[in-house]
């Protein structure tokens, strides 16, 4: 069976649950450019025969597609990621048991507080007839707000007035109690930043978009987002109450996938329940691959507004937890490649040697090119550590699906990511019978390389 199109019949098994939630687009509460879709999860759930007794994990869970899709199917799942913005997203999207009355109360208070402030900010510097006509309304004292642009904001990503409004919004959200209802507001706040408020375009890397510069109606944008969240939660709570839907349990944790087993054994509640007995049955994920995607840059505004990216030190802390998949997160002390003798793998050795030759021949001594071979070594060594941890957690006969792209981002040197990962998983870790199948061809992100394959790599832990 192919996974992308021909799985309709298989998916029907899940229609009874899904159809009740089909208009529910909780995924849209917050998305990012690297997210995959519900369909790939439902296809794999059917193909593997995953049941409601099983435990699924997505160790690179991103905005939470896997954990939300499995929850809708009544299947328990754990999602982990290193990005606090993604953890907030996945956790909020899968927490359906929130007090909606409390949410409504806080929403109306927040909206009535910010509306006149936003109006005043919009009219600042405007000497139109309108603003003269409005001279009866009192000026609000805005001196308690800090309107300075946060240090790590990329240049031009936020125009002056939207920046001020977002700082006011953040101030008032921070005044709320630190609980799961407030998480909905936090998620709405970070979601609207790249989507509608900032001057950012994703292609897929984030760049400044001058066409979007100027004031924005942040009030309406926020209100629309909060209304959507309320509608979705109303619908889902109603379906659960009437017994039509039995959602799976979910647990979302911040963890480095290279230390997965260690973290989950000590921090996970769901893994250690009687139902799951400390074992993962299935894994479905899309990990990073060596293609110069900088996740911390694409989520920069969100991380800043969550208060976890105030300076370089903060940013580095997040980057260092990440799999080394691009030249801007390679550090002097990185030695996973050496530790694991990763070049013993012939394919990796050939790629690294080819890159080293280019560096020598072209006399490259500066710029990011000099780090290309190290990205390859550190990337595959990091994934090797991750596979070891998954093997340790997985039940015998368990299966893992990794959606990964090939790469030609580095001087067009071909990196067949899935093939290499399959070899490492089989030869160095003990997974059996790796299968690779084409998921889709997609346009390369660099202009100098035509087309890259995205594959699904399937690994099986052998029965004892
Ligand atoms: C391709 S994205 C996953 C997208 C996800 N499938 C979705 O639909 O949103 C890869 C994710 O891996 C995360 N990541 C990178 N290094 C990691 C690590 N060492 N441990 C856990 N997550 C990591 C990134 O933060 C990013 O969210």
Automatic annotation (TrEMBL):
DNA methylase N-4/N-6 domain residues: 51-85
One BP annotation, GO: DNA restriction-modification system
Catalyses which reaction(s): a 2'-deoxycytidine in DNA + S-adenosyl-L-methionine = an N(4)-methyl-2'-deoxycytidine in DNA + S-adenosyl-L-homocysteine + H(+)
PROSITE patterns (UniProt xref): N4_MTASE
Alphabetized UniProt keyword annotations: DNA-binding, Methyltransferase, Restriction system, S-adenosyl-L-methionine, Transferase
GO-annotated molecular function: DNA binding; N-methyltransferase activity; site-specific DNA-methyltransferase (cytosine-N4-specific) activity
EC number: 2.1.1.113
Family membership noted in the UniProt record: Belongs to the N(4)/N(6)-methyltransferase family. N(4) subfamily.
Protein name stated in the entry: site-specific DNA-methyltransferase (cytosine-N(4)-specific)
Native source organism of the sequence: Haloplanus rubicundus
Classification of source organism: Archaea, Methanobacteriati, Methanobacteriota, Stenosarchaea group, Halobacteria
